[in-house]
Amino acid sequence: MTWYNVDAASCRAVFARTEGERAQAAQKHSLVSADIDSLGALCVGESAALASALNAVYNRVLTPGMTGAEQQVSNAVAGGRSAVSAIQAADHEMADRTERAAHGVDEFRVTDGKPV
Question: How many domains in the chain?
């Protein structure tokens, strides 16, 4: 039989920190996008092709990786939270069943009664 011990409070703290890091990554993603837009706005005249190239690099390389990483972190946190909740629910269910079984008494017949 496999034995485990899940410290739900510690898990939730890790999930919260991870969500905070994901939020910071999303903010940096927005800043990179704004910086690309700012750089592109500076590219006028003969350098206008650079704006298009910057946007292409952002679209093909930067944003897919950044967006994908943010989504993977969100999915991992959601899965972790779900797993911890499922384990806790199962632990409570097992404890309840054990308690009911311990308090339940099958029908019995007294065979060694004393005369009154």
Answer: 1
Contact indicator for 18, 76 with CB cutoff of 8 Å: yes
Q: What is the DSSP letter of 62?
A: I
**Would 86 be classed as within a structural domain?**
yes
Instruction: Please check whether residue 2 lies inside any domain of the structure.
Output: no
Query: Cα 26 to the chain's mean position, in Å?
Result: 16
Measured CA to CA, the distance from residue 29 to residue 41 in angstroms comes to 19
- pLDDT, tens only, 5-14: 889 999 999 9
Q: Could you tell me the residue range of the domain that residue 57 belongs to?
A: 9-103
Q: Which residue has the tokens 């011990």?
A: 5
- Joined together, the tokens standing for residue 74 give 């969100």
Q: Is residue 109 part of a domain?
A: no
pLDDT tens digits, 4-60 = 788 999 999 999 999 999 999 999 999 999 999 999 999 999 999 999 999 999 999
Answer yes or no: is 116 within a domain.
no
